[in-house]
Amino acid sequence: xxxxxxxxxxxxxxxxxxxxxxxxxxxxxxxxxxxxxxxxxxxxxxxxxxxxxxxxxxxxxxxxxxxxxxxxxxxxxxxxxxxxxxxxxxxxxxxxxxxxxxxxxxxxxxxxxxxxxxxxxxxxxxxxxxxxxxxxxxxxxxxxxxxxxxxxxxxxxxxxxxxxxxxxxxxxxxxxxxxxxxxxxxxxxxxxxxxxxxxxxxxxxxxxxxxxxxxxxxxxxxxxxxxxxxxxxxxxxxxxxxxxxxxxxxxxxxxxxxxxxxxxxxxxxxxxxxxxxxxxxxxxxxxxxxxxxxxxxxxxxxxxxxxxxxxxxxxxxxxxxxxxxxxxxxxxxxxxxxxxxxxxxxxxxxxxxxx
Amino acid sequence: xxxxxxxxxxxxxxxxxxxxxxxxxxxxxxxxxxxxxxxxxxxxxxxxxxxxxxxxxxxxxxxxxxxxxxxxxxxxxxxxxxxxxxxxxxxxxxxxxxxxxxxxxxxxxxxxxxxxxxxxxxxxxxxxxxxxxxxxxxxxxxxxxxxxxxxxxxxxxxxxxxxxxxxxxxxxxxxxxxxxxxxxxxxxxxxxxxxxxxxxxxxxxxxxxxxxxxxxxxxxxxxxxxxxxxxxxxxxxxxxxxxxxxxxxxxxxxxxxxxxxxxxxxxxxxxxxxxxxxxxxxxxxxxxxxxxxxxxxxxxxxxxxxxxxxxxxxxxxxxxxxxxxxxxxxxxxxxxxxxxxxxxxxxxxxxxxxxxxxxxxxxxxxxxxxxxxxxxxxxxxxxxxxxxxxxxxxxxxxxxxxxxxxxxxxxxxxxxxxxxxxxxxxxxxxxxxxxxxxxxxxxxxxxxxxxxxxxxxxxxxxxxxxxxxxxxxxxxxxxxxxxxxxxxxxxxx
Lengths: 355, 493
Description:
Low-confidence stretches of chain A: none
Largest sheet of chain A: 2 strands, antiparallel
Order of helices and strands of chain A: HHHHEEHHHHHHHHHHHHHH
CATH class of the domain at 3-194 in chain B: Alpha Beta
Mean pLDDT of chain B: 87
Number of helices of chain A: 18
Oligomer: heterodimer
Strand order of the largest sheet of chain A: 1-2
Helix content of chain B: 40-55%
Radius of gyration of chain A: 23 Å
Strand content of chain A: under 5%
Strand order of the largest sheet of chain B: 3-4-2-5-6-1-7
Number of strands of chain A: 2
Number of strands of chain B: 13
Shape of chain A: globular
Number of domains of chain A: 3
CATH topology of the domain at 3-194 in chain B: Rossmann fold
Low-confidence stretches of chain B: none
Structural class of chain B: alpha/beta
Radius of gyration of chain B: 24 Å
């Protein structure tokens, strides 16, 4: 029995984390948990595309999939929550990857997770409203009923200078232009879901069936096309004035987690980690997690405030030699370096490359 | 303006439907009113039209969040921008924004739990209220099948608002329920309108089928009956299964239930209304507030939990006045599932023991109970419905001793379960009744026997051939999909 698309995605991710992380780290990754640990792991194991890519996954589903892999001989258990791919597992995955790219070419969960839903809700509403406007149909039920989205949309519509026909035509031109530019995507994945004046769009389940895809495959292709569009329209604002304005108001940087943000502010005021831990009544290790997260995201972060340049150099030497990202191996070979320093150096030096 | 003129001006209808005119006259003459109008006769028009003609705000209390959302959307779709819903769907900042500008709105929908907060009530007090509307007013009565403890607060709120002109609307209410409505709303003098629940255009069928044959029978019915139709289920899982089975046989069908995300729900509703779907396999989450005129049949795969909800559900057929069909498939023993469902909706004794055990152990005050929602849901295993009952019950008894509340709560749930079981027994009696089904239902609602002559019900004689479809199955569109053409047809003129 050939493996399914979903199987391939899970095998791919399990292969990336090797036996170094628990299978539940994937659960947090797919759900898009904004914890320092999950964010760092996503970067460390090059799994950022999948951040919040399957938010509906449950622990039980994950466990079932892993169990199935073991019984099919694709996985081998090495610790209670850690597994490695067997040769069969690797082969199955390789065969699959010859036909289908995993992850999909444009999937960038970490970079766009805060924009994805927003972009889709606004785009689908814009198409529906434009289509109804040019057909002079006022009585329709908006398919996006979040108050927030509707409020935003009202303001957006007021700011448009074009008349209804020009607006709809501009939208048509930009959409076809954007979807034509890239040969590897399938525009039907998106267009089937859109609602017009007299035609209601399909649900994701219906679209998957229509295109003869499994639900997981369809869902990732849908995210892929949205991420492609967000990327394209925001790098070429002049070519896509209308589409790019759908996400213009949103803060571009990925925000820090709330708790990390507080730590960041205190560090900025000159407090040292020890003091912050005491002030916030948090464990020292938590504050260290925060600092690693800051190192990953804040360009101005001064690494050498926390790690001596010599130690940084030695850690990088060892890290580039050992393919494994196991911190323990590095610590064993670098005298005097602690885990915090190693994580910081990896985050700082690898983080930029991975982003 | 003449009332008919106003009707045309605001709703583009030429004539009133049965009962609407009388109810609206009563309100406009300034009398508190209780109106029992059958489903599908345009209950909402009974407050919307007076709302337009009266100066001041219309406050509508509505029990179901989804229903409220639907009503607001529909009003907006008709061009009324001044409609708003205040409920727990709102994010804190949205709520703040709306409350700050409350005066901008004309039709303000409020969920009953929101009436429990001081802030909302004080904001409402600042408004000039022309009309207070209690939708689905039977929820106020313990005898009602949908009893909502939150509704008991409405009386106090009404008093706090200085007893504005009030209308209570309901589709189904027995005499004792109507009595409760007046009592709890603290009405002093009121007018009551009761219009027959009978819908002569709907034929009422019942079939006894073996457990194994049910799905097969559904397939037969669906393939022979003129659509569109709705099939009701008590279980999400079976609704999904059946939908997928029918889809494999070429039907345009989707399942609809509370487990779907918001977008899918809207899409499926709209696809059904626009004729892109011919059938919906639904749980009771589907239907309230859906205005589709030409539903031709309603099938029940499982027996309903009360005759009241059965009547509501079959009432979604034939709103265009054309002949339509309701069929209930019954397998002896189905009532066991109904009892299980009823029991599951109410917290059981063990859960209540656990609840008070935790309260004692953690030395929590009863006033803090909703703040610890997660703790209780986790430790006592409450479902959403169960938790709502618990939170409401305790919220109104905060000042009492926990041990006392516990005893009373035991008594309360025993009583609630008894009522639910009685309702189920009544449905069973209906199913086993050999006489006219329509008469049975009407008598239950204290009405006289009906006078439908042809295809009245399965006891009086019902010929399913009269409901056959004329047209052949239209095949699903399997042509190649041209996305560019689709976009053009949406966006280019």
